[in-house]
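Module 6 notes. Inverse folding takes a fixed backbone as the condition and produces residue identities as the prediction. Think of it as a translation problem where the source language is geometry and the target language is the twenty amino acids. Below is one complete input and output pair. Work through it position by position during the lab.
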């Protein structure tokens, strides 16, 4: 099947640009005629790569919300997908929605068509839609996943917004320090003899000369370190150790455990409410946590549950989540209301993560300001000391 970029004209004289899939140009013309449109121009696109880039979380939310609303209103899924692709706000979304539309037209289910996009959609969403198709509750599954990813998007937005101020403060701090060290200090100390300078000034001055004479080498080394770290994280063993470290760092580790606990509870709640089998539910949850270490840990959880262990006990034995998660799951298992308990627990951890983020930022701000004050104070003293020595020598 080939892809064609087409320019069409409808019966009202409106120009439409779209992407059609057909075996030959003749098939393309027939497909256009079947929709009572006029083909003005077409161009065959180069073959798309097998790996499809992942949709942004915001696009996933829009996809679930709009498609779920249309299906709930009784609109046939083919028509709903056609309306959805016409509303695509970027080329990547349009390309993916077009492929889904064509695959569903061929007789594939929605979940199968989404799976064929090779990574464009999260596994959790595909499994939830599959469960909705089997249970006849596709609209409910889509709306539930829209809520799920909206909350996920909210958490991600809070993390970014909470990180913004420390990042800006750090950049400004580095810029101020470099400005003082590279431009201000050498200009002021140029009038003094090197042997008359105090040791603090000599240290900062040597550092200044090093930066000025080796700035290109420093940039190259930093880039190499960055690339090496990125490539190293693609190695499974290193990635697992890195993700494990994130969970057990002081202060930050507790915050990460809270965030992953919320994500785990939300995924379990969504899958459980849709009637997904326990083992499949745990396997899918491990894949959506986005943590290589927890994914390996869940192998033991699945093994324990398959042997008859309670989910709460298996999760508690990992020691990788907030202890309240396993406690609340246990209450849900004992009371028979696991779905409601998981939803409440996810909301609780969402709020806890928000509070923990604000607390961490509140803690980082004074620490960064104190460190910045000490560094700049040391540089200022290094600048002022030679001037004082000069005044003392003149007065003597």
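Target side of the pair, the amino acids:
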């Amino acid at each position: 099947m080939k892809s064609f970029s087409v320019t069409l004209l409808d019966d009202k004289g409106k120009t439409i640009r779209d992407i059609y899939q057909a075996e030959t140009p003749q098939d393309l013309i027939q497909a256009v005629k079947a929709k009572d449109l006029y083909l003005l121009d077409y161009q065959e696109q180069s073959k798309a790569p097998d790996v499809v880039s992942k949709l942004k979380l915001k696009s996933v939310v829009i996809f679930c919300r709009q498609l779920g609303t249309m299906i709930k209103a009784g609109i046939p899924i083919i028509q709903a997908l056609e309306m959805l692709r016409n509303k695509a706000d970027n080329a990547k979304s349009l390309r993916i929605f077009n492929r889904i539309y064509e695959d569903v037209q061929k007789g594939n289910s929605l979940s199968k068509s989404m799976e064929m996009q090779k990574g464009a959609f999260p596994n959790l969403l595909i499994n939830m839609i599959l469960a909705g198709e089997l249970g006849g509750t596709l609209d409910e599954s889509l709306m539930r996943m829209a809520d799920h990813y909206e909350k996920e998007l909210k958490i991600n937005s809070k993390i970014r917004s909470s990180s913004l101020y420390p990042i800006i403060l750090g950049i400004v701090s580095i810029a101020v320090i470099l400005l003082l060290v590279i431009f201000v200090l050498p200009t002021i100390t140029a009038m003094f003899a090197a042997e008359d300078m105090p040791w603090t000034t000599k240290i900062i001055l040597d550092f200044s000369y090093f930066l000025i004479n080796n700035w290109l080498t420093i940039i190259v080394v930093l880039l190499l370190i960055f690339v090496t770290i990125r490539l190293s994280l693609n190695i499974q063993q290193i990635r697992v150790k890195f993700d494990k470290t994130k969970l057990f760092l002081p202060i930050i580790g507790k915050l990460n455990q809270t965030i992953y606990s919320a994500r785990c509870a939300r995924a379990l709640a969504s899958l459980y409410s849709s009637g997904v089998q326990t083992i499949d539910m745990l396997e899918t949850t491990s894949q959506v946590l986005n943590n290589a270490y927890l994914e390996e840990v869940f192998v033991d959880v699945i093994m324990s549950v398959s042997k008859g262990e309670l989910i709460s006990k298996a999760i508690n034995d990992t020691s990788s989540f907030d202890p309240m998660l396993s406690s609340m799951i246990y209450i849900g298992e004992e009371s028979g209301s696991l779905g409601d308990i998981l939803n409440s627990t996810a909301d609780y951890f969402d709020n806890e993560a928000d509070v923990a983020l604000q607390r961490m930022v509140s803690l980082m701000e004074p620490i960064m300001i104190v460190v910045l004050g000490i560094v700049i104070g040391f540089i200022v003293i290094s600048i002022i000391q030679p001037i004082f020595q000069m005044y003392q020598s003149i007065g003597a």
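Reference fact for the lab report: Residues 338-395 form the longest helix (58 residues).
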